[in-house]
Design a protein that fits this description.
By secondary structure, the chain is mainly α. It has eight helices and no strands. The longest helix has 25 residues, at about 135-160. The radius of gyration is 21 Å and the shape is globular. It starts with a helix and ends with a helix.
Amino acid sequence: MNVNTENTVEAKVEEVHLSFKESLVVLAVISIVSLASNWAGTGISPIKAVPAMLIIYAMIFVGLLLTKYVRIGFPAVAWVSLISVLLTLPVSPISAPILAELKNLNFLSIVTPVLAYAAMAITKMEVDLFKRSGFKIAAISILVFTGTYVGSALVANALL
């Protein structure tokens, strides 16, 4: 029996999921960091931006609740997006006040710390997957990024 253990035995890495309570605590910490980042990036005081951050927190909270209790295989990010879109549609009666408050937050300012954390949170499993994929995944990524950029530029040039 010839078994190549190097190729057949892979490290089993169990994905760890945060509990609902842990998710809310992490969300609160991220909200505070985002308020500070928004202040640094735009000069809008955190006190003035707190209502907008609470609105975002509430949207995410509802999305997490739906993920937990409505088990139809819909991911949390999809629930949060759906809630956010529905609440901010022009036909929504609460759209105007929500959008008025959200003008106190700058997307680029609040997403920067989140993206920095995401870059640091790459796991050993993801690094191993990248190593196994090798050159192929790098080449495909470059082609996808280039195609997306060129496509976006063409659409922007044609419509703007």
